[in-house]
Amino acid sequence: MRRSALGVLLCAALLEAGTAAAQPEASVQVTGLVAHAGPVALGNLKPVTVDAHFETMHGTQAHRWRGPLLLDVVNVAGLKDEPGSKTHMRHVIMAQGADGYKVAVAMGEIDPKGEGKQVIVADREDGKPMAAPRLVVPGDTSFARGVHDLAALEVR
């Protein structure tokens, strides 16, 4: 009896490990004014946690998200500034979902020299892993820029 219980536990542990290993690491494609266009793995970046609430047709919702800062994701790709003075804050990041939905986030919103807002590319919601990354913009009232199934970021 003891061996079979141990065997069941071992099999369960192996299945769980195999399932975790089979899930691809979350990433987002970064293009545009960057030195290294391509996918950026979110798991390689320091995560932050943000709480955000927003209004829906069914009332207020509140969630806790975790993931790297949008600015960190862009910086991994190597942001390219235009020639000239003070061009850094001219950038806009277009975030696009798998369904084609697009929103803009201005560099001045997320840069510490500007507003310094903690916009994140979330991979966890309320402590649970998400099937796909989501752009989370704390402070937006309606969550219209909360792009689900985030597929790409284009730096302009």
Short description:
With 156 residues, this protein is of the alpha+beta class.
The CATH superfamily is identified as Oxidoreductase, molybdopterin-binding domain
Give the overall form.
Answer: globular
The ordered string of helix (H) and strand (E) elements is: HEEEEHEEHEEE
Question: Mean pLDDT, nearest integer?
Answer: 87
Q: Which architecture per CATH?
A: Alpha-Beta Complex
What share of residues is helical?
A: 10-25%
Largest sheet: 5 strands, mixed
Q: Number of helix segments?
A: 3
* CATH classification class: Alpha Beta
Q: Helix/strand/pairing class, anyone? A: alpha+beta
Distance between the termini: 64 Å
Low-confidence stretches: 5-22
What is the number of beta strands? 9
Q: For the largest beta sheet, what order do the strands appear in spatially? A: 2-1-9-5-6
Number of domains: 1
Give your account of this protein's structure:
- Helix content is 21%, strand content 40%.
- With 156 residues, the chain is of the alpha+beta class.
- The protein is globular.
- The relative contact order is 0.21.
List keywords for this structure.
156 residues; Sulfite Oxidase, Chain A, domain 2; 5-stranded mixed sheet; 4-stranded antiparallel sheet; 40% strand
